[in-house]
């Protein structure tokens, strides 16, 4: 299992390095075809995580910074970002959006526990081989009372058959430059969040529904801010 996860992680880093130079144009077009934009997604995330008056917000899987720019425009003052792709981080660094950027996997983030007043991630989780570890890191890094928003592509049915899963992964290899995908139903992600001790507060469907829906899952960590 470890060898398989290492392979998926390596393929993702290579694929997103390869995609970095054309990523913005590709993903902005995809969202427009869904009927919304990164500006609207940034506003949704900013509303979900609320105002953060003390310290930074964490973005997991910054890509080129296309989302971070929109979140920053909503008034989030300080964003720290991580990504597994050095090529993506180079693009993100050029936007001037981030207070700090780290090259690491979402499954193991070299930052002290309880460092963030909020966090968010968009379209990253399906590329992470050990998703439970990534969710556990989110829970570890949030301060008590802090909020999070996790956006991803999700199958409409929790009983998707082998053929559907195979088709989605073949499409992902093509559309995401060779990266493999591990798509989960929102109920499965909610279960992971709750297992990590986080309290799920809502689900927001984004854009036009397709085989894989765009859904934002909102949550917070128990305790007072």
What does this protein structure show overall?
By secondary structure, the chain is of the alpha/beta class. It has one domain (2-221): Rossmann fold, CATH 3.40.50.150. 41% of the residues lie in helices and 24% in strands. It has helices spanning 2-19, 23-34, 38-49, 66-73, 86-93, 131-141, 162-175, 186-195; strands at 57-60, 79-83, 100-103, 116-122, 142-155, 198-206, 212-221. A seven-stranded mixed beta sheet has the order 3-2-1-4-5-7-6. Helix 3 packs across helix 4 (66-73). It is globular and about 45 Å long.
What's this model, at a glance?
This protein is α/β, with parallel strands linked by helices. The protein is 41% helix and 24% strand. Helix 3 (38-49) crosses helix 4 (66-73).
Structural class, from secondary structure content? alpha/beta
C-alpha geometry: globular
The secondary-structure element order is HHHEHEHEEHEHHEE
Number of helices: 8
For the secondary structure, the number of strands is: 7
What would you say the CATH architecture is? 3-Layer(aba) Sandwich
**Helical content band:** 40-55%
Mean pLDDT across all residues, rounded? 91
Biggest sheet details: 7 strands, mixed
The CATH C-level name is Alpha Beta
Q: Write out the strand line-up for the largest beta sheet, numbering strands in chain order.
A: 3-2-1-4-5-7-6
Number of domains: 1
